[in-house]
Amino acid sequence: MKILVNNEETDFQGKSIADLIVSMSLSMQGCAIAIGTKIIPASKWEEYILQEGDNVTIIRATQGG
User: Fold this and answer.
1) Residue 29: partners with Cβ closer than 8 Å, 6 or more residues away
2) Taking a C-beta distance cutoff of 8 angstroms, is the pair 40, 58 a contact?
3) From CA 9, how far away is CA 4, in angstroms rounded?
């Protein structure tokens, strides 16, 4: 299915937000996920099923000063 991830069209073969994080080789720790304008809590990532055309925003915490 085609979804937008941080405004880039992506062909995604998984189902859940957790699948997306794994497919992108990201750590689940330090990430925030929004679908459209709704923030999805990390506790729901395994069960939240992405749909064709979803607009996913991934925000990652970084260290620095």
Assistant:
1) none
2) no
3) 4
Taking the C-alpha atoms of residue 50 and residue 52, their distance in angstroms, rounded to an integer, is 7
Mean pLDDT for the stretch of residues 35-55: 97
Q: What is the mean pLDDT of residues 45-59?
A: 97
- % pLDDT > 90, the chain: 83
Grouping H, G, I as helix, E, B as strand and the rest as coil, residue 33 is: strand
pTM score, two decimals?
0.88
Q: How many CB atoms lie within 10 A of CB 16?
A: 15
Residue 61's SS3 state is: coil
